[in-house]
Amino acid sequence: MKSYIIVSFLLMGIFLSSCSTPQLWKDKPSYNETIEQFLINKDEEMLVVLGKKFHYIFSIDDNLEKILLSKKRENITSYFENFKIDSNNSVEGNYTLIYSTNDKESKNDMWLKKLGFEKSKKTFGKVFTYKYSGKLIGKRYLPKESIVSNQKFNREYSLFIEEEETNFDITAKILLTPIAVAQDGVLVCGLIVLSPLVLPGIAVEMLSDSD
User: Residue 42 contacts by C-beta under 8 Å, 6 or more apart in sequence?
Assistant: First the structure.
């Protein structure tokens, strides 16, 4: 267990060190978004990210949905990087999921490979890893002040986002979020009910506090 914890921090350091830093984009419009909650609807294959500044709605494929909803995600660390927004407030960015196990021949090996995970040839001590990467594509929305989530993270995560350079303020074109609170307190997107999504391990381009 000790080696597993050490490797988790080592993996996080490797990925974070490869990410772009705000200094590299100091001449471009950009901002840091504090991620407060993830929401999902499996029927519509929709991933919603609630931030302090904006809301983001992404379409996800069937494999990513199965991974995010599986109990096996407890062994997965999620990495998000290189998020960019264009003049139409369309947003896209990269994600990487790392599944870690102490078993050389994981009992979940077939499940992981079927979903598209690739087993790493390198090992970190006694820890073996599988990698799954992809791109998130969606839209940015302006949140409503009345939306308050009571299922936030126990710490804050800040994601660095770059905006397209234009001759006008693209935030003036942002539509109001379709996310709302129903009478029973459940968050919905139009008529679509959203369920809270817990990702045990999260790493982004910039963390709000360093350990």
Answer: 65, 69, 195
Short-list 41, 35, 37, CA closest to 195 = 41
**Could you give the angle at the alpha carbon of 182 between the alpha carbons of 180 and 184, nearest 5°?**
145
42 phi and psi, to 5 degrees?
Answer: -70, -30
Residue 25, CA atoms < 13 Å, CB-side half-sphere: 19
Closest CA relative to residue 36, chosen from 189, 190, 193, 187: 187
Flag whether the pTM goes above 0.85: no
Strand partners, 155: none
For 146, the 3-state DSSP assignment is coil
Distance CA 112, CA 74 (A): 14
Domain residue ranges in the chain: 2-207
Rounded-to-integer distance, Cα 141 and Cα 132, Å: 28
Positive or negative: CA dihedral 166, 167, 169, 175: negative
Q: Confirm if 115 and 66 have CB atoms less than 8 A apart.
A: yes
pLDDT tens-digit map of 58-89: 999 999 999 988 888 888 888 889 999 999 99
Q: What are the structure tokens assigned to 172, written together?
A: 């003036």
